[in-house]
Amino acid sequence: MLPVPHTAIIVVAAGSGTRLAGGAPKAFVGIDAHSILRHALDGVFAAAPAQVVVVAPAGFEGDAESELLAAAGERADLGRIVTGGATRQESVAAGLAALWGDVETVLVHDAARALTPAAVIDAVAAAVDDASGVIPVLPVVDTLKRVDEHGVTGAVDRSELAAAQTPQGFPRALLESAYAEARTAGVEYTDDAALFAAAGHAVRHIPGAERGFKITTPADLERARHLLSAPIRSAGAVRVGIGTDVHAFGGEGDLWLAGLVWPGEQPLSGHSDGDAVAHAIVDALLGAAGLGDIGEHFGTAHPEYAGAHAPVFLARTREILEAAGFAIGNVSVQFQGNRPRFSGRRSEAEAVLSAALGGAPVSVTATTTDGLGFPGRGEGIAVTAIAMVHAS
Ligand code: CTP
Ligand code: MG
Question: In Å, how far are 227, 282, 317 from 314, measured between CA atoms?
Answer without folding.
Answer: 23, 6, 5
